[in-house]
């Protein structure tokens, strides 16, 4: 064995065999390059490692490497990366190239490569690192401190001691004695014989995937239990350390995505802070264990962060697993309900990390869930509060009375009191179809599975048993038609609509306008893309997109809408690159007229001027101060001047910057930073200033500010927008249980708004729920509409 960590050059020293003792480190135990060759029984080459020490040997970041016996100038070391650890007294099997001959497969390998090793001559190195070695002589390799062990066989130039191991062939391997004695002399340490591959589970060819002692004969649990690994905070006290033979019962297996399985200790302690379960991450290897297996797991404890601001999952990675028995009863599941889940959401740390805080599972809902991380949990007869999505996920509430909306959801009404009863549900049963659930439906019966955590939504139940979906019959809403003397103005985010989208998408969105909104006089559309969508070729016009959309509206029974918009500068308004989303006005020319003041463009600001005929815009359609830093990489407000039954109305369509970059409400930084709010507040201030200029010119001006503001009615954005009482947010005129336009992570919330100036005093306002609560959505936003009787709006 090559010494590691000493300074200077290394010499291979051949010790007398009488003084050889087992190495306290990992060594190469057996090498076979004849797999699949003529006369071979085994179908595959392999390298077997061994550990004669008393502690597990961590192989994370290590590799096995191969060099031809007589390397040429062009020869390079070939690399197979390793994971996991070798338990004390155990073996570790690395499978390499498969040949066309042989009849017997290796047992399940612990690492897999594709190196075509020579049957008769070559060099194998165990390396602390995964970079290919560069040495090609025995002396140079002796001087490389990354080489942990070296085995040259046949006529190998690179070897330890007096000569290479001899006798390797298509039918013979070279192997150390069972003691794993290492004298740093390959010729003395290795003898040839029939290949005898053994994996970390103790399996040999033909022994199958189960059983095995996984660690050199020991089937006794180690000294560390899962509860020790999980600890009493969000971070494991064993993070970065290798744990040995941790016992548990397999409670769930994930065979797609992040591969692995959960184990839970069936004999819990009495500390409510310590979880009794942990996820075992198997990397690219599909788990071979089954639910109900009693196992011992050896591997490295890590804290896996799904994102930079999320909480972490405590995991055991690179596992060596011993299956002791199968078909065992599973530990009892913890019930999630309005009694068990606390009403407070999460502790705070002045914006810092809460990871080091001792868990308080009786006080905070998120601490309660963390104390159950990986454990079996269960709930019964839960109402769906977030519809199924394309990823096979839905949201339920285990607190049916918590901020219930009129249609079955859960209302998000403040930053300080997030809803604690929401929980995400996914299914581990990939053979069954995930139910298409709408808000207000019910998962009837029992849902049970391990409790996991992800960056999207936080804590979730990985269901091994999924309740039965009961359809509550949620229907799309249809608002009433405006009366003859009412001006109807609506806003609708149509989610990246472009001329290349399917006709089905156009038809469904168009039906929302013609039928569900009942053909408003003016519709402000958000997220209309250019004529070739995400194709990034400089196209900025959207007339082809709008023609397809207005044709579809007419086909659905709506009017022949006309449109107005300002094309953005290419790739200057955010959104999907190349898409050039913008706001657009549609209007029914039989009911309302648009006043054109030509000259507005992407970078020219419109303003308010007084004329002998009254107040008007310098440009209509126009943009509000489009070169202001508040609108950087974001949509600019579109302003238009309309006339209805002789009354002038100013409409300002908005799509403020998104919440991207904000820290999640369930993340490790508490309270979470809402960094995107700074730009939205600046945007709101610009719109507020513009409305003030309009009211300064005409205090009775009728203004409608609407669109996707990407913020809540209780946010700083809306507070800034309404400063000075120049605008009234109409969402606040609805009963609290109806104040939402969007559903995210099971929270029904308001992102889209209509606000009106003080002169608009006679109105009827409605949010029309047709998308956000449904699994089958035309858009992720619900539209809304205001109907204004201008003749009854009193002058001030």
Commentary on this structure:
This protein has 796 residues and is mainly beta. It is 9% helix and 30% strand. The strands form nine sheets. Strands 29, 32, 33, 34, 35, 36 and 39 form a seven-stranded mixed sheet that branches. A six-stranded mixed sheet has the order 8-7-2-1-11-12. The chain has a six-stranded mixed sheet with strand order 27-28-26-25-41-40, covered by helices on one side.
Summarize the structure.
With 796 residues, this protein is mainly beta.
User: What characterizes the major β-sheet?
Assistant: 7 strands, mixed
Mean pLDDT: 92
Alpha-beta content class: mainly beta
Number of strands: 41
* Helical proportion, percent range: under 10%
| Uncertain spans | 1-23, 208-217
Number of helices: 8
Bin the strand percentage: 25-35%
Shape: elongated
List the helices and strands and how they pair.
Blueprint (H helix, E strand, L loop, with lengths): L25 E7 L11 E8 L5 E2 L4 E6 L9 E4 L3 E2 L4 E8 L12 E2 L9 E6 L10 H5 L4 E7 L19 E3 L10 H4 L1 E3 L32 H5 L11 E13 L4 E6 L12 E7 L10 E11 L8 E13 L8 E2 L29 H6 L5 E11 L6 E5 L24 E6 L14 E13 L3 E6 L4 E3 L15 E12 L5 H14 L5 E7 L14 H13 L6 E3 L17 E6 L5 E3 L12 E4 L2 E4 L4 E2 L14 E7 L2 E9 L21 H21 L5 E6 L7 H6 L6 E2 L12 E3 L2 E3 L2 E5 L6 E5 L16 E6 L7
Helix pairs in contact: 5-6
């Amino acid at each position: 064995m090559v010494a590691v960590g000493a300074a200077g050059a290394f010499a291979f020293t051949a010790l007398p065999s009488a003084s050889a003792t087992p190495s306290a480190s990992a060594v190469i135990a057996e090498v076979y390059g004849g797999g699949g060759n003529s006369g071979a029984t085994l179908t595959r080459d392999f390298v077997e490692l061994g550990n004669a020490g008393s502690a597990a040997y961590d192989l994370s970041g290590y590799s096995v490497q191969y060099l031809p016996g007589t390397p040429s100038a062009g020869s390079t070391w070939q690399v197979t990366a390793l994971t996991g650890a070798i338990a004390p007294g155990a073996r570790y099997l690395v499978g390499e190239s498969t040949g066309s001959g042989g009849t017997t497969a290796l047992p399940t390998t612990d690492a897999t490569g594709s190196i075509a090793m020579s049957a008769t001559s070559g060099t194998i190195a165990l390396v602390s690192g995964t970079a290919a070695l560069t040495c090609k002589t025995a002396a140079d390799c002796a001087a490389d401190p990354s080489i942990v062990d070296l085995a040259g066989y046949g006529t190998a130039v690179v070897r330890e001691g007096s000569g290479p191991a001899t006798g390797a062939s298509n039918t013979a391997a070279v192997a150390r004695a069972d003691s794993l004695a290492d004298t740093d002399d390959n010729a003395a340490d290795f003898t040839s014989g029939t290949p005898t591959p053994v994996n970390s589970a103790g399996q040999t060819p033909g022994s199958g995937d189960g059983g095995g002692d996984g660690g050199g004969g020991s089937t006794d649990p180690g000294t560390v239990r899962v509860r020790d690994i999980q600890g009493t905070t969000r971070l494991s006290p064993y993070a970065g350390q290798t744990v040995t033979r941790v016992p548990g019962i397999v409670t769930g297996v994930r065979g797609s995505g992040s591969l692995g399985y959960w184990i839970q200790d069936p004999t819990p302690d009495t500390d409510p802070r310590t979880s009794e379960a942990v996820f075992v991450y198997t990397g690219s290897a599909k788990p071979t264990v089954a639910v109900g297996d009693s196992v011992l797991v050896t591997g490295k404890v890590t804290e896996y962060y799904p994102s930079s601001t999320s909480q972490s999952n405590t995991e055991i990675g690179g596992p060596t697993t011993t299956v002791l028995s199968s078909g065992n009863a599973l530990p009892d599941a913890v019930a999630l309900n309005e009694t068990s889940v606390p009403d407070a959401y999460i502790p705070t740390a002045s914006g810092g990390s809460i990871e080091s805080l001792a868990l308080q599972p009786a006080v905070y809902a998120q601490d309660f869930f963390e104390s159950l991380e990986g454990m079996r949990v269960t709930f019964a007869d839960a109402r769906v509060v977030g519809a199924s999505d394309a990823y096979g996920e839905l949201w339920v509430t285990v607190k049916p009375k918590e901020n219930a909306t009129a249609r079955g959801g859960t209302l998000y009404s403040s930053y300080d009191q997030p809803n604690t009863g929401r929980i995400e549900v996914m299914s581990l049963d990939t053979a069954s179809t995930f139910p298409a659930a709408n808000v207000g439906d019910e998962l009837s019966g029992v849902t049970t599975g391990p409790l996991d955590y992800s960056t999207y939504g936080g804590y979730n139940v990985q269901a091994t048993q999924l309740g039965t979906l009961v359809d509550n019959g949620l229907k799309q809403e249809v608002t009433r038609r405006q009366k003859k003397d009412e001006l109807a103005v609506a806003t609708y985010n149509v989610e990246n609509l472009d001329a290349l989208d399917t006709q089905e998408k156009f038809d469904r969105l168009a039906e929302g306008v013609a039928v569900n909104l009942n053909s408003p006089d003016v519709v402000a559309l958000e997220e209309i893309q250019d004529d070739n969508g995400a194709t990034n070729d400089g196209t900025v016009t959207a007339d082809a997109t709008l023609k397809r959309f207005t044709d579809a509206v007419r086909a659905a029974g709506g009017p022949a809408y006309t449109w107005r918009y300002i094309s953005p500068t290419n790739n200057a308004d955010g959104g999907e690159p190349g898409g050039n989303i913008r706001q657009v006005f549609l209007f029914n020319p039989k009911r309302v007229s648009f006043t054109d003041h030509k000259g507005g463009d992407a970078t020219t600001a419109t303003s308010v001027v007084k004329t002998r005929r009254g107040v008007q815009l310098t440009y209509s359609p126009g943009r509000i101060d489009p070169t202001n830093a508040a609108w950087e990489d974001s949509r600019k407000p579109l302003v238009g001047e309309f006339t209805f039954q002789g009354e002038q109305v100013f409409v300002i369509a908005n799509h403020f910057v998104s919440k991207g970059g904000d820290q999640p409400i369930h993340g490790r930084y508490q309270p979470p930073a809402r960094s995107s709010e700074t730009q939205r507040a600046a945007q709101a201030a610009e719109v507020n200033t513009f409305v003030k200029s309009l009211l300064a010119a005409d205090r009775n001006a009728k203004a409608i500010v609407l669109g996707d503001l990407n913020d809540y009615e209780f946010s700083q954005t809306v507070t800034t927008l309404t400063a000075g009482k120049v605008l009234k947010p109409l969402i606040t005129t609805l009963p609290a249980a109806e104040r939402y336009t969007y559903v995210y992570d099971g929270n029904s919330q308001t992102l889209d708004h209509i606000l009106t100036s003080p002169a608009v005093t006679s109105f009827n306002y409605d949010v029309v729920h047709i998308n956000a609560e449904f699994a089958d959505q035309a858009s992720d936003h619900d539209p809304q509409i205001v109907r204004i009787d201008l003749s009854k709006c009193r002058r001030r």
